[in-house]
Amino acid sequence: MNKTFNLDLLRAFVAVVDSRSFTAAALQLHSTQSTVSQKIIRLEEAAGQALLERARHDVRPTDAGEKLLGYARRILHLHDEAAAAMTGTALAAVFRLGLPEDFASRLVTPALARFMRTHPNTKLEVTSGLSRELQKGFETGEFDLVMVKQKRGETVGTMHWPEPLSWLDSADFPVSHVDPLPLVVFPPNGLYRSDMMEALDRAGRRWHVVFTSSSLASIQSAVAEGLGVSLLPTRVALPGHRVLPAAGGLPSVEPMEIVIRHMDNGPDQIRQLAEMLAEIVGE
Questions:
Q1: Domains (ranges, CATH) in the chain?
Q2: How many whole angstroms from its chain centre is CA 141?
Q3: pLDDT for 129-175, tens place per residue?
Q4: Cα–Cα nearest to 250, from 185, 186, 188, 179
Q5: Sheet of strand 165-170: strand arrangement
Q6: Which of 262-281 are b and which e, b meaning 16 or more Cβ less than 10 Å from the residue's Cβ?
Q7: What are phi and psi of 277, to 5 degrees?
Q8: Maximum C-alpha span of the chain
Q9: In sequence order, which residues have a C-beta less than 8 Å from that of residue 143 and are 6 or more positions away?
Q10: Is the pTM for the entire model greater than 0.70?
């Protein structure tokens, strides 16, 4: 028997995933938390499997939820587009962007603002996250455009640039001389983590992980406070950091690559947005 997904349930599911909270989703949908929870339960019953992982302070999609999410977004957008066409009202074009945390902040804001000024009848939905998660989201149709970091040549993108990496130590509380070397890292599968560990292993330098976070800001702060060293893009070094010289005793690591990917058959606005972002990255 074919599965049928109710639009109202799909809308609740997308709201919960985007806000990562049942409470926030309920406010967004002008509903109650219990009602949203019941809708998710009904959707999971229709799907025949769990769609969300519920933690105390966070909600994330399961693998099945990730798979459904891209379809849910497209279904809802097509529904809203059809409804607007039938009523004769103009529906704002919605473009879904996935950006790494360090690009989703002030670095690309000018380009996004300029795009919105030149395309007033558009709406941007920007999600920041780890590059591997963004790549996966793009390939499942969750995003119209992503800017990601990868090892050179890992995937083919519309545009690409090198991303030089440097070892960063604390300017005030240096620890790069400590043995074993304390490391500040992203979680498993996060960028730079395996690169730094493999480089240190090849160089015969002992190391141990002292701090792990998925937040770039937390990584930067931990390094500045002297918890450990980290391998990061050179451009994210802060005044509290010391960029270790190439001859400073730690092994060199090949640059990463910044790649912009967007749908080949997407609207012209997506290509224009990609070009605006490229101007920022290429500077």
A1: 1-91 (1.10.10.10), 165-254 (3.40.190.10)
A2: 14
A3: 878 888 888 887 788 899 888 887 766 677 788 888 999 999 999 99
A4: 179
A5: 230-233, 165-170, 241-243
A6: beeeeeebbeebbebbbebb
A7: -65, -35
A8: 69
A9: 96, 97, 98, 127, 134, 137
A10: no
